[in-house]
Each structure stands twice: as structure tokens, then as C-alpha cells.
Design goal:
1 helix, 8-stranded antiparallel β-sheet, about 475 residues
């Protein structure tokens, strides 16, 4: 599988401080190597740029940049503190290309014209180590606005001392005009290479990630809670998920053969292997999360792994169509791809507090709320986060349910990653959320214990206060 892509850092990464000297971009003899893909063509060529000599423009000293192969002068660059300016022609106004001192969320530049304006801002910042140096790496986005509405955007990665992933004076990747960074040199010393830009993708579901979903059987209940006497008793089942270990499909391409195992604990099962997840760049889309079910046994007794469905692509921007795939729609294998659907188009990206340690980015798309880096928050199916790839249906793969039989509604209520709570939102007691209230006879199974957050207690309870049959009980 060809992996020709740019890596975009997750927008949720916090800004970092760097106790080191700034690595300057411009130095005599410094050389950059790139590949250029011709617009609207599969043709490409390699080229190199070098810093060679000084020039004075408006009483300020600039470094001259030449094409190595042709010897042709290209433009002049000036570095002022952590800002880099470019002059293409001597009489041109200097253009700000980089500001390596900006933090996540800050605007680098804003340029207005008669049609609108263009804003470059920093999305995320982190640090990478190369040799004995620690370099600042930044994700930036360039947004194009008309009447204060974003009509398009482009992304890029900057690394101090190396420049942009898209070309020395191309801070973002322009549609139809693609440059790819290969390496940067001074003499025989390589200062950086492509892997610093094309890096391991952000892990959204690393080892130890866990989350909780609640599931309502809508044939039995019309609301998450029922009021019994003075108490609100939960009608829902609670399912815990956790990521632990890996599964390797040895027959598949090395780029797509290592999956993370997801186990569940539910009302009638414990430590059940339910899902396999893969994360990375897939079919040109960065920040993808693919999902499939554990291998199934075919009629010939052999084990088969269904080709994963594309559950999420978290590299969002305004105008992005958010797609997902159904892994069971065509008895998918590595040869036959799954069916593709979409949530819709992102019109606005918002920030919100969801009970966790930090604010999260999210989008509301056609009535579905999607948390960036996590997934959907409610789904009309037996699962929530991975309901779109329908693992609930896949668990009974050879006894498929009809749409009318799929009568569950699921909600994400808790999510933890790397030991940090990111999401903790439970349905409010007394809130119907569009469903009529239920009668007292439809309350959950008698004598079932629930904790004070409304979660069903699985197994022997520990000491503490619980709810049973609508009343508070103490377990000693």
C-alpha cells in the first residue's frame, strides 16, 4: 500500500514550552530537497533550493535562495526573531511566511482583499527529537473567508529550522500543486528528513483506553430513567469497553495488518473480544480509525478477517464530508470493499466542555454530534462509538436483523485516554429527550443494583450506597 501523505497533528494537543535555543531557518549553504507533483498530472520531478549570499532590500539584509540544478535566483528570505519574511521581487512588499513563536490557537497572519480574507492560524504544537536537537513542530491551517464564512481551507506542518512540509515558501499545501519535503542539509550533515513530517499518526485509542456506553431497549422503555416513588431508576444497560493487546493478520499488507483489540463487559458477558481497530492514513485520508470484528469461521472451517470499515476521519476542516463504512453490507473481504455512507458535511467546528479535563472540538452534522478524536455521542443501534460500522449486527453475522428489529438506542457517557477523563456526560434524570415517560411496570428487573450514577452493578457489589427497586440500600 502506498503511503504518500502528510501527517496532521491532532488539534487537541496542548501547547508545549521548549527550554532550548531557537533553531534558525536560514543559514549559508543550507539546502532543501523536495519533490513536486505537477498540477492535474501524475508527473513529478525533484528539485533543491540553497541559501547562497546576501542582498539588501529597503535597508534590511535578506538571504538569497537559488535553484540548485539551474542556478536560477528564486526569492529572498529574512529571519527576524522567529518570523520569516519573503520578497519575490525587489519592489514587492515582504510577505510573512512563518512565525515559529506562535502557540496553538493563535493567528499567524490575516490578509484581506476585495473578495474576503485569508487567515493562517496555529492548530497544534508539539516537539520532536532529531539527533540531539529538540525541534518545535506546528500544525497550521489557512482558511479562506467570504462574508466571515469559511469557504475553504488548507493544512500544513511547520518544523523550526526546516520550514514547511509543503515547500520552503508554501506554508500550506495548495490544491493541485503539491510539494513534498525530503530532507534538509548543511554540507554533509542532514538536519532533518521526511519522517519528521510523515510521522506516526496520533493514537485516538491507545492501549488502556476505556469508555462506557449505555444502551436502551426502545421496545421496553421510552426514556433512560423511570421515576419510582421519589427515586429515578435507570432503564438502560451499561457496557464497558477497553483497549488491550494487539491482533496481527499475517496475510495482509504490513501497512494494514496490526489491530488493537477492544473488549467489552456487559449485562450478560465479561471480557468479550468485540472489535479490532486500526489507526493511521488510509486511501489518502489522515487521522483515520478503521474497525472490524474478530475473525469469523467460514463454512470451510477457515478463519477470515473482514476488511475493516472506515469508522472516522478526524482530520476535519470546514466543508469536510464525514464518511463511514458498513463492514457487513457486502460480506466484505480484503478484495471487496465495504459500503460507504456519510454523516454529512461539516459546516461549523465548535469547542465545548464535556465534563473532562479539557475542552473538546466537535461538530453537529445532520443531528449527529461527533467529538473530534473520540466519535459519535449517540446512535440508534446497539453500540455508540462504533455503531456506524455495525459491530452489533456483525456479531450475529449469519442471522442478520432487519432494520425494524434494530431497536436499541446507545449513548456515550464516559471516555478515558492515557489515564485522563476526556468525556463524562450522563443523561439527566427527569429529562425525556423526545421520548414519552414510561409506566412503573416497565422499570428494570427487580432486585437489580445500580450505583448512584445509574450504572448497573455487575457481579457482587462492594460496600457502599446503591439503588434497588427505586430505593436506596446500603451494602455492608
Amino acid at each position: 500500500m502506498r503511503r504518500f501523505f502528510l501527517f496532521f497533528l491532532i488539534a487537541l494537543l496542548p501547547a508545549m514550552s521548549f527550554g532550548q535555543d531557537y533553531e534558525p531557518l536560514l543559514k549559508e549553504g543550507k539546502t532543501w530537497k523536495y519533490t513536486h507533483n505537477k498540477p492535474f498530472s501524475e508527473d513529478y520531478y525533484d528539485f533543491s533550493l540553497v541559501v547562497r549570499g546576501d542582498t539588501t532590500i529597503n535597508d534590511l539584509t535578506y538571504k538569497k535562495i537559488y535553484d540548485v540544478s539551474t542556478g536560477a535566483y528564486q526569492y529572498a528570505l529574512r529571519e527576524d526573531e522567529k518570523r520569516v519574511y519573503c520578497v519575490f521581487q525587489t519592489k514587492d512588499t515582504p510577505q510573512l511566511i512563518y512565525d515559529f513563536g506562535k502557540e496553538a490557537g493563535e493567528i499567524v497572519s490575516e490578509v484581506a482583499d476585495k473578495d474576503g480574507k485569508t487567515i493562517v492560524r496555529v492548530v497544534a504544537v508539539d516537539a520532536i527529537k532529531y539527533g540531539d536537537r529538540l525541534l518545535r513542530r506546528m500544525e497550521v491551517v489557512e482558511e479562506y473567508l467570504e462574508n466571515d464564512q469559511v469557504i475553504g481551507s488548507s493544512n500544513g506542518i511547520w518544523i523550526e529550522g526546516l520550514g514547511s512540509s509543503c515547500g520552503l515558501v508554501s506554508p500550506v499545501q495548495l490544491p493541485g500543486n503539491y510539494n513534498t519535503f525530503h530532507s534538509c542539509w548543511v554540507g554533509n550533515e542532514m538536519l532533518g528528513e521526511n519522517e519528521l513530517f510523515v510521522a506516526k499518526a496520533q493514537e485516538y485509542f491507545p492501549e488502556g483506553t476505556k469508555w462506557t456506553e449505555i444502551r436502551l431497549d426502545t421496545l421496553k422503555y421510552d426514556s433512560w430513567y423511570s421515576k419510582v416513588g421519589d427515586e429515578w431508576v435507570p432503564n438502560f444497560e451499561t457496557i464497558e469497553y477497553y483497549v488491550q493487546g494487539e491482533y496481527v493478520e499475517k496475510e495482509w499488507d504490513d501497512d494494514l495488518n496490526t489491530f488493537k483489540k477492544v473488549y467489552t463487559n456487559g449485562p450478560e458477558w465479561t471480557d468479550s473480544l468485540t472489535l479490532l481497530l486500526w489507526e493511521g492514513s488510509f486511501n489518502g485520508d489522515d487521522k483515520c480509525v478503521l474497525a472490524t470484528i474478530p475473525p469469523i469461521i467460514g463454512f470451510d472451517g477457515s478463519s477470515y478477517l473482514l476488511f475493516p470499515g472506515n469508522a472516522y476521519q478526524f482530520g476535519w476542516s470546514i466543508g469536510t464530508i464525514v464518511e463511514f463504512e458498513d463492514i457487513t453490507s457486502s460480506n466484505a473481504t480484503a478484495i471487496f470493499p465495504p459500503g460507504t455512507f456519510d454523516f454529512g458535511t461539516i459546516d461549523e467546528i465548535k469547542e465545548g466542555d464535556f465534563g473532562g479535563a479539557s475542552s473538546l472540538s466537535y461538530a453537529d452534522v445532520n443531528g449527529v454530534r461527533i467529538i473530534q478524536g473520540i466519535g459519535v455521542t449517540t446512535w440508534n443501534d446497539g453500540e455508540c462509538l462504533f455503531g456506524p460500522v455495525e459491530p452489533y449486527q456483525a456479531r450475529t453475522f449469519f442471522q442478520e436483523e432487519s432494520e425494524e428489529d434494530r431497536h436499541y438506542r446507545s449513548m456515550l457517557v464516559h471516555f478515558e485516554r492515557n489515564g485522563e477523563v476526556l468525556y463524562d456526560v450522563w443523561p439527566e434524570k427527569g429529562t425525556i429527550s423526545g421520548m414519552k415517560s414510561v409506566s412503573e411496570v416497565e422499570t428494570p428487573i427487580a432486585n437489580t443494583l445500580y450505583d448512584l450514577q445509574g450504572r448497573r452493578v455487575m457481579g457482587p457489589p462492594t460496600k457502599g450506597l446503591y439503588i434497588q427497586n427505586g430505593k436506596k440500600v446500603i451494602v455492608k
